[in-house]
Amino acid sequence: MRRAILAAAALLALSACGTVRELKPVGGHELPPAPYGRADRPTAAELLLPPSQAMPIRSDELRTQSEQRKDDPFDLPPETKSKS
């Protein structure tokens, strides 16, 4: 019984090992048409890359340590309303 389970597990593990090859559409289907303004049709690999809007590049530097803030001349205390 154990041998059968081990053999089934080994076959299942080996079946997961596949060869890496270029992606192709399923038989009878085609890749989507070329986008407006583009002459050639994008490949399957190009279609899998996310657009730059989906993964924007950070343009600000993250702080790694605490630092003292510089004096801000516009950081004024709130006005107190006096009763006249």
Q: What would you note in describing this structure?
A:
The chain is mainly α and 84 residues long. Helices cover 24% and strands 0% of the residues. The chain has two helices and no strands. The chain has helices at residues 2-16, 44-48. The longest helix has 15 residues, at 2-16. The protein is elongated.
Question: How much of the residues is beta strand, in percent?
Answer: under 5%
> How would you spell out the order of helices and strands?
HH
Rg over CA atoms, rounded to whole Å, is 30 Å
Number of helices: 2
Taking all residues together, what is the mean pLDDT?
80
Largest sheet: none
By helix and strand content, what is the structural category? mainly alpha
User: Could you estimate the helical fraction of the residues in percent?
Assistant: 10-25%
Per DSSP E runs of 2 or more residues, the count of β-strands stands at 0
Low-confidence blocks of residues:
none
The rounded distance between the terminal residues' Cα atoms is 96 Å
What is the 3D form? elongated
